[in-house]
Amino acid sequence: MGEYVVLGLGTFGRSLALEIQALGHEVVGVDISRSLVQGLSGDIRQVIEADATSEATLRDLGVSNLNGAVVAIRDPEPSIMTTLLLKKLGVPYIIARATSSLHEEILKLAGANRVVFPEHEMAVRLAHEVAVPEVVDYLSISSDMGINKLHVPKDLVGKTYRDADLERRFRVRIMATIRRDRVIFGTSVTDEFEAADILIVSGRDDDLRKLAEVAGRD
Asked: What is the mean pLDDT of residues 46-61?
């Protein structure tokens, strides 16, 4: 079990803190807004009203002893200052939220190990789901590559992985198959697809889209 601090308890920070806690970790939520802190006092086990850009505050929180920190503050100036202080105090892993490419660059220079764009990432996922309803979920890996979770195309049901030959036909790789109550990692060439299978496949976005469109035409 790890210990983490989430700085900034707007919609993104609040959701993240609650999810980290639900996964069994200890989490401290921090925000300068009294109303936000009071509203979460019954949901997050430890929530504090404080200024995250204060070095003294971060020292008092003992951030250097935690497993990691998430800077969920939206405004660039305080988010950058907070990231700098966390790095200075020796926090081993820092995730920071950015609102622009310049903001991202500065956060990385300030010491963030990972920078995220929550609104953009959610928009990308929703766009894939709206455009092709057969896609259950989508995860972007890079600017042109991703991982799709989609229902198996009907014309593959009963075929073996070898006969389907998805790597040659669509240039995608099956990472796992979700079948009823279990997950099958990798593939055996003699396994057959079943009607209720959900595939986890990786590849370039264009190739993933072609496979998803085939699933949608069934």
From this structure: 94
